[in-house]
Amino acid sequence: MNAVQSPPELFVRTVSLPDRTGGLIDLLPEGTPLAWLNGEDGLVAWGRAARFEPDVAPQCTTPTDNSRIGQAARWFTDLLKNARVEDQVGLPGTGAVTFGTFTFAPTSTGSALVVPRVLIGRRGDRSWLTTIGEEPDQHPEEALRTVTEPRPVGPLDWRPGSLTPQRWKDVIAQTVTRIRDGELEKAVLARDAHAEADAPLDVRMLLKRLHARFPDCFTFSVDGMVGATPELLLRVEGSEFDSLVLAGTRPRGEDEESDLRLGREMMTSAKDVEEHAFAVDSLRASMKPLTEELTVPDRPHLLKLANVQHLATSAHARLAPGVSALDAVAALHPTAAVGGTPTEAAMRLIAETEGMDRGGYAGPVGWLDGAGNSEWGIALRSARVDGTSARLYAGCGIVAGSDPESELAETEAKFRVMREALTDPGK
């Protein structure tokens, strides 16, 4: 049982680095990199100084049980007690840092915290290097390696997921009927697809392509979950809390006029506005007991990405004394944007109808440092990468006004993000 595991004693040292030209991804060696990137800022890391996998609850009867997040929080707290930290920079993401991914459901395997051996961070005009190990590192710069160029992906064999497109549309239609019958108000349903390569996939290539196309998203790689999510579950710096709620989606237009038209349609669509309101109400209800001065705008704004546009609402608050970032993660997950409303009814419907285990898809993914600073997103626009295989995921919110054909088209648009990251030019 993980409850009796003792974290190792670790020595942590963070030093300033000269500001470097080029991207952080270019500093990653081949292997199983860790990354969290937004614009030019972020963290990249490699190696494993420590790792924790929470216990799984295969017979759990409460679909919203987030005890795995609590287990992970206690483990990291114990690790910090055993860590000797020298931090010459003192910014969020310095000192002891762990990357994390939590599964969507409590019955799934795949949740983990990973403490890297080497981390490089950038925030504005500041860059730093952190080394973590069992012995003090007097020469941390020696941990920097000469890295190779990321390998192209090569030919891919694509296979359908758990449900055919027609079967998935049938599930959507059945879900709409259940919503109209009053069983629930909203359910977020997802599909999967599979890709198989001839050689192990180089995650660095996926990161480079995703980050280049979606610089305003959070590009991540944590323990096999790789993607570019637009959805910031939370950011905590000190006691300050921020979140970005996304629900309601349209494609980008072919020109400026059609793009504006699609955005206006979504802003006035009863279906999309209702779907978004459920997600915002979910955040309010989850965070009100944990915060002070919670501020949530009355109306959403449009967030335009390279391939789609969303209804978006930014929220801000101050965490109540004693509340940690992982407390907030556990309170927020699953949001109505990835689960549904009411939450338990939606989670049970998802388990009954999707025909697959989501694993880390639509679960929290991000990082946490020893000072409590943290950024967590929701693992959307993502794939689970394991050696030569990648499993892609895409989903959409279903309400009473949903149309199965339109929802299928929305998932295809969301699949395109990872399909294009996996497909070499000219293939």
Describe this structure in words.
The structure is a single chain. With 427 residues, this protein is α+β, with helices and mostly antiparallel strands. The protein has a single domain, classed as Anthranilate synthase. Helices cover 26% and strands 34% of the residues. It has eight helices and 23 strands. It has helices at residues 67-81, 165-180, 203-213, 256-268, 270-287, 325-332, 343-353, 404-422, and strands at 10-17, 34-38, 41-46, 50-52, 83-87, 97-101, 112-115, 118-123, 126-133, 156-160, 186-197, 218-222, 225-229, 232-237, 240-251, 291-295, 301-304, 308-319, 340-341, 364-369, 374-378, 382-386, 389-398. The strands form two sheets. Strands 1, 2, 3, 5, 8, 9, 10, 11, 12, 13, 19, 22 and 23 form a 13-stranded mixed beta sheet that branches. Strands 4, 6, 7, 14, 15, 16, 17, 18, 20 and 21 form a ten-stranded antiparallel beta sheet that branches. A hairpin with a 4-residue loop joins strand 20 and strand 21 (374-378). The N and C termini lie far apart (47 Å). The mean pLDDT is 92.
